[in-house]
Amino acid sequence: MGLALGFADPVFDSQSAFRAAMWALARPGRLEPLAVTLDPPAPLSPEAAALLLALCDFETPVWLDASAAAVPEVARFLRFHTGARIVAEPGAARFVLITDPARMADFAEFAQGTPDYPDISATLVVQVERFSASGLVLEGPGVPGVRGFGAQPLPADFIARMVANRAGFPLGVDLLLAGAGHVAGLPRSVMVREG
Amino acid sequence: MTTATLGGMPAITYNFAYLDEQTKRMIRRAILKAIAVPGYQVPFAAREMPMPYGWGTGGVQVTAAVLGPDDVLKVIDQGADDTTNAVAIRGFFEKTAGVATTTATTEATVIQTRHRIPETPLRDDQILVYQVPIPEPLRFLEPRETETRQMHALEEYGLMHVKLYEDIARHGHIATTYAYPVEVAGRYVMDPSPIPKFDNPKMDDCPALQLFGAGREKRIYAIPPHTRVRSLDFEDHPFEVQRFAQPCALCAARGVYLDEVILDDRGGRMFVCSDTDYCESRQAAGHRGEMAPPDAALPQPVSPRGEDATRVSDDASSDLSASARGRPAGAGAGAGTGAGTGAGGTEAGHD
């Protein structure tokens, strides 16, 4: 079975995917367009694949959730195009791929950083199907006032998880929600409530 | 992409924006974490750049990592687009990235800056990249990295307040005039780089993304857009910015940061906008200061930086002159000689 192609233009495709991720984390809940040019093996989505190919390499262990790990082509695709190690221990990963967000693992399983080095924490790439402007109300750095945001599917206790993640600030994980040609960021600094 | 054919032989060119792709990825990951933890200094593996430390190697690496082919780059050095550092870095990216460059703040998407924030308000699609010499605000109070790191972890910033208090005890006011410490998003105390404290209020709730790169010290930090940035102060000694008694001599602007330009050896001097783009666009719009050349003699907006003019543009001199000319209340109140000069002359922050 052949291997799906990576970026047609690694330099500029990586740069534009990174810029989308950067603005997404800088402006939590605002949708940033993400060019979808990849055709990765399912269940890995083109949007999530673009982010991982842009950001991962031999320095960043990657953990796959159960539904992604069940398909060996996903690991092969990521290994070949990024050189990243695929790890079985979630706490060892710097990037985490969540292809089945409704059943995503608890954030506490992933690296939170340390008080001295809060940056040594996991970034979660969460595949969602669609975005909306309601369901969650965001506040904090990067949000002028408040911003309505929503994404589906997410676990039922998602708000409680994000509140717990914020409570540990400056420790915590950062989320990049990818899907429908866009990426949205929920960094650990964001305050999430229902609305 | 990295080779171009030249007479049948492949000519080796630079990768886009000079850095290799793995270096860019490493810097980009640091930028993402810096944004997620506003004000926290993320360590990164700074590379040697084809310019010495102190000339903006940190800012250049951050710019190289974010830059795309559609970006329009502006580079300023102490507010000016036409000084050595700014011209050299602009030329560097013209050569290695082929991006468009500009001197107009409004046209730029990425602005790399040394020690100033433009006077023109920034937009939410702009990225401001600061060159930082010493990223650690506590470094001159506590030299050990292990200790300052723990102080940040414990949010233990009492030492910084002691330093500001000692300013008051010695000078009657907080004498720190540049690199004035700020608290970001209610958590980390951060060095805003050696910008005059005049610029500190512009960081608060700024619509643009602010990224900071320190090459020699190997740190990246960030302020996301619309983030609360508070300059440290005391209830009875609130934070104040420098004020100038007179408007810009060329464009008559008030409420902007002015540089002193020495005109001769008999005490002649003029005060002009430090932000050259702001000053020139005001002159082009017809604003005239008291020493502005007459319209007829002005085919293009001219810069005051002629051969005769010795440019004295650090904070110490501006502050000194401001106080010498009767600096308003708060600045030099009650203190003896040299009250207005403050700490501007010490610890000169050349990055």
Could you walk me through the main structural features you see in this protein, from its secondary elements to its overall organization?
The complex is a heterodimer of chains A (195) and B (351). Chain A has helices spanning 10-26, 46-55, 66-69, 72-82, 158-167, and strands at residues 32-33, 62-64, 86-87, 95-98, 123-127, 130-139, 147-152, 174-179, 182-186, 191-194. With 195 residues, chain A is α/β, with parallel strands linked by helices. Chain A has one domain: Rossmann fold, CATH 3.40.50.11310. Chain A has a seven-stranded mixed beta sheet with strand order 1-9-8-5-4-2-3. In chain A, strands 7-6-10 form a three-stranded antiparallel beta sheet, covered by helices on one side. In chain A, a hairpin with a 7-residue loop joins strand 6 and strand 7 (147-152). In chain A, helix 1 (10-26) crosses helix 2. The longest helix of chain A has 17 residues, at 10-26. Chain A is globular and about 50 Å long. Chain A starts with 9 loop residues before the first helix and ends with a strand. The model of chain A has no long low-confidence stretch (mean pLDDT 96). By secondary structure, chain B is an alpha/beta fold. Chain B has a domain at 12-137 and 179-231: 3-Layer(aba) Sandwich (Rossmann fold), CATH 3.40.50.11310. In chain B, 24% of the residues lie in helices and 17% in strands. Chain B has helices at 21-36, 57-66, 84-96, 145-153, 158-171, 200-203, 276-284, 315-324; strands spanning 3-6, 9-12, 42-43, 72-77, 100-101, 110-114, 127-131, 182-184, 188-190, 209-214, 219-223, 229-231, 258-262, 269-273, 310-312. In chain B, the strands form four sheets. Chain B has a seven-stranded mixed beta sheet. In chain B, strands 9-8-12 form a three-stranded antiparallel beta sheet. In chain B, helix 1 packs across helix 2. The radius of gyration of chain B is 21 Å and the shape is globular. Chain B starts with a strand and ends in a 27-residue tail after the last helix. The A-B interface holds A 9-12, 14-16, 18-19, 21-23, 25-27, 54-57, 59-60, 94, 115-119, 121, 123, 140-144, 169-170, 174, 187-189 and B 1, 15-16, 21-22, 24-26, 28-38, 40, 42-43, 65-69, 124, 149-150, 153-154, 185, 187-188, 205, 207, 209, 222-228.
